[in-house]
Design brief:
heterodimer; A: mainly beta; B: alpha+beta; 3 helices; 22% strand
């Protein structure tokens, strides 16, 4: 319990040194369709995509877990999330990759004859977030996870990069489970450069984000209340998961959340979805309304697959050939 | 007998001629064609063009230039067609303002793109098919998650068929531009009326 006290004190200290900054991370969209349908509760996932919500939630991974998530927002912005987790004898190791890309953005110039704005060229935008996660158990009911996060952004002649560290804890009590996730505890920054203008440099601070949620089981329902502190804004969320006993392979989710847009203004969002479990594969779907008139309905899809590889038991990180599954993306993240 | 007829014919002809002369002389002032004197200079068109009317707004750009057109030469100076005259319906060269559908006749573009809100002075430029009153055109801006980050009306009148440029600033929209994070933004240009209509859309990116 003294560890929890230490973490609580650390949170209180960190909240007093929050920067006034304006970087917005793409992963705030949600790590999976399941997370979005539950109001983006950051302690709900128990599969590989927990790397992006709370790495302590990886404790449930017994062998391998893969998560894939794809969404297209406003018919223009493509989101992709891939996560992989492997259990080793040292703890669970995970790698996650999140990207948002947009194409056909006009690079404009002024027509010398008419003085009108014209399209001179088209460029694309890519924002990538990669995470390496490690999860270990402090005790049977107390789990700890940490992340190393790498950010990389590129568009037109601009490139930017930065890094951060996350800490997540998960404490299982008799009637509920407490999850706390501290994102970017080092309060790092994204540094921008231009390949065509050597004088151009700019910095955006990545704000500290702290979220705390509960998981309360009542009959066929699981309730997820959450409070999140992001850039001095308190953002409540609430999720309900209903798993009817007569259809055990189907779960219904509903969620509500407050979130900040890129101008740091609050918005309210409601969502719903379902999980379809077929053996060790679980398909997730989420639906959410959008403010964008031309595509005011957004659907999210994801799936998770928990599997064994060659009947392998817990091995070291480089203990078997199957570890190459993890090592390749691991190396990719390091070189990003 | 023939001589008698010839005399009568000459006599009747003379009476008719005198009658016609008398009638035309009497009503000459009524039907007299007058010619306006030429303007003081060749560029003086004040008598022809009403400065309060934006004639470009009503010009029909959909006519086929390969088709022959007729021009009524009404006065000295350059030939002009008055869009409010029934004669302007010839060749449908002009359309009445009420018949022109409001639309963007050019892409709505930000310049520069990408831009920084701190170091650049971004502008948005577009052309409409006709004049639009102030606070009738709306802009909505969305971030990468589909959340609306900005909504405002253009405060100035928009001149039809003329390329309009507006500063992306409080002076254009009557409200301050929020401090937007770096990223890609989508925007919509909408007309405000009985039925809200999307006139155009586009993308821009912001660098810090």
């Amino acid at each position: 319990m003294s560890l929890i006290n230490t973490i609580v004190v650390m949170i209180l200290i960190l909240t007093h040194v929050i920067y006034a900054n304006n970087f917005s991370s793409i992963s705030d969209l949600g790590a999976s369709a399941q997370a979005i349908s539950l109001g983006n509760i950051q302690g709900a996932s128990r599969s590989a995509d927990a790397i992006f919500s709370n790495p302590a939630g990886l404790y449930k991974v017994r062998n391998y877990s893969v998560s894939l998530f794809q969404a297209t927002v406003m018919n223009e912005i493509n989101y992709l999330n891939m996560s992989l987790c492997k259990r080793t004898k040292y703890g669970n190791i995970g790698v996650g990759y999140y990207s948002a890309s947009v194409g056909d953005i006009p690079f404009t110039a002024i027509d010398p004859d008419t003085a009108e704005f014209i399209v001179q060229d088209m460029y694309s935008y890519k924002n990538q977030v990669a995470k390496i996660a490690y999860q270990t158990k402090i005790s049977r009911r107390f789990h700890l996870g940490i992340n190393y996060t790498k950010y990389k952004i590129s568009f037109h002649d601009i490139t930017a990069s930065g890094y951060g560290f996350d800490i997540g804890i998960l404490k299982i009590f008799r009637y509920f489970t407490l999850s706390t996730f501290l994102q970017n505890v080092n309060q790092g920054s994204i540094n921008y450069q231009s390949s065509s203008d050597s004088d151009y440099t700019a910095t955006e601070k990545i704000p500290l984000s702290i979220s705390s949620s509960l998981r309360i089981s009542i009959a066929d329902f699981i309730l997820y209340p959450q409070i999140k502190l992001y850039d001095n804004n308190f953002l409540p969320s609430f999720g309900i998961n209903y798993n009817p006993r007569f259809i055990p392979f189907l779960k219904f989710n509903a969620g509500y959340r407050q979130l900040l847009d890129y101008a740091y203004q609050k918005h309210d969002k409601a969502s719903f979805g379902l999980d379809l479990k077929l053996s060790s594969i679980v398909f997730h779907y989420a639906y959410e309304r959008s403010d964008y008139t031309l595509a005011d309905h957004t659907s999210y899809f994801s799936f998770t697959y928990n599997f064994k590889f060659n009947n392998s038991k817990s091995t070291g990180l480089i203990g078997s050939s199957s570890s190459a599954l993890l090592l390749l993306p691991f190396l990719y993240v390091l070189t990003l | 007998m023939i001589k008698f007829l010839n005399h009568n014919f000459i006599y009747l002809s003379c009476i008719c001629f005198i009658g016609i002369f008398f009638i035309t002389y009497t009503y000459a002032d009524i039907n007299k064609l007058t010619i306006d004197p030429p303007p003081a200079s060749a560029t003086d068109t004040d008598s022809i063009i009403d400065p309060t009317i934006n004639y470009h707004s009503y010009f029909n750009t959909n006519i086929k230039l390969s088709d022959p057109i007729s021009i009524m030469y009404l006065s000295w100076g350059n030939p002009q067609l008055d869009p409010f005259s029934p004669l302007s319906q010839i060749n449908n060269l002009y359309e009445q303002p009420s018949n022109v559908a409001l639309a963007l006749s050019s892409d709505a573009l930000f310049y520069p793109n990408p831009f920084s809100l701190k170091t650049d002075t971004p502008q948005i430029g577009f052309k409409t098919t006709k004049d639009v009153d102030s606070q009738s055109i709306e802009i909505q801006i969305f971030d990468m998650r589909g959340l609306q980050v900005f909504q405002a009306y253009f405060q100035d009148n928009i001149i039809g068929n003329t390329y309009n440029k507006f500063d992306f600033s409080e002076s254009t929209f009557g409200k301050s531009i929020p401090n937007l994070s770096s990223g890609v933004y989508l925007f919509l240009i909408l007309s405000d009326g009985i039925e809200e209509k999307i006139l155009g859309k586009g993308k821009f990116s912001i660098k810090p």
